[in-house]
Request: fold
Amino acid sequence: MTLVVGGPVGESEHESDGHPERPARMAAVMAGVDDLQLGTDLHMVAPYEAEMAQLARVHDPGYLEELATFCQVGGGDLDPDTYAKPDSWTAARRAAGAGLASVEALRQGTGDVAFVAARPPGHHALRDRAMGFCLLNNIAISAAALVANGERVLIVDWDVHHGNGTQAIFWDDPNVLYVSTHQWPLFPGSGAATEIGGANALGRTVNLPLPAGATGDVVRQAIDEVAVPAIDDFDPTWVLVSAGFDAHRADPLADLALSSGDFADLAKAVASFAPRTGRLVLFLEGGYDLGALRKSVAATLGSLLGACYPSEAPTFGGPGTEMVHQVRDQRREALHRAWQMAPSERRVR
Amino acid sequence: MNPVERIAVGFDGSPDAEAAVRWAMTLAKQTDAQVVVVHAVGLLEHAAGGGVAKLEEAVGRLTRECGLEPTQVHWHVGDGDPCSVLTRVGARDPIAVDLLVVGSRGHGAHAGLLLGSTSNELAQHSAVPLVIVPSGRDGR
Reply:
């Protein structure tokens, strides 16, 4: 099998002293790719700067202009977590372009699966605001491009933080199914099971909040018991993954307890949702322990490609089984209430 | 009936936020209202093990200076960026408030641009009356 890698983007640009979302992350990511020793089965795709019209499918033009200007005049802190530097606008556009180029490479049959090795990350970025280390919502920009071509896009977000930006952007879009596993409670504060989508897309948002300490078996249980029925019903034509690796037990920003082997298992499960090979694209999001990031990237991509990779054993026995049942029931109740109020033609599972 | 029984005020420890708290507490003293000090815990603050501990001293000092009873002052600590947490409070979620008070800019909100401006976001989305306390104005 052939891996398409879009990037790398952010190996030396977009940097702020002492900030955990840093260029060294990209070196760790690419080391994880190199560990697989793919040889001719690795196809690198050069990123390009996404055009304004491509970005404007998900971002307000006014925000884009402000962000560009903000960087041009020197940048600074956008909120207590999020920075922009003079080179950040270009880096962010290249990160978005790396996703678009990766999708296009798969469309042309260049590879079997794609990985977007690009930063800054994207899934917290809102339509009109940067947030949570994110400037442009890379995965949403690629998903919107696919939807514009008539595709039905499943987004699976296994970053430890809820992808509030992605959820908000596609809240009312019936052509995108957003599924997120995330620690709860935790930044950004959204991602409750009762958040199920807007009036035109009821059921198209599936949130699977998990308690601190949850292990890989609990994440898989949540997906199997709560998300799979919605995914089966949705029948996606493409699968995109917000592949954050900060749910790893070594990550300094959160408290889930996954291993690199859990990401390998998750990747295989998510790949089974794609209609065929060549329809799965993973986007780097979080992951701030460099060793865990390298191991997790190698395990995730290695499992998808059937390659040899170093991996930690999958984890079992953490808390959260009961919470999964509560999530399932809360979602069911929320859907029931919403369906009772919605016109029948808007009802989706 | 007092139309303003519970005042929420954003606080991140910045001078502008301190001015907003002082303004809210001064109004609370005049109207016998409750004050809810709202603090957002972001990605970096969570990683640093932060919370309200380092902010409690400042709020305690302001409480004494404004002549409020400690029982009039409460905390609401939410996960998220300041804009998101305050927007939820402005939508009376998860606490019901009658008035929202913020400084004109806190830590990390760049002056002179709309980008990242919590007060501008809130002006568009708050469901309750919003007071933006300008820099250097604190009700004294």
Chain B has five helices and five strands. Strands of chain B lie at 6-10, 34-41, 73-79, 99-103, 130-133.
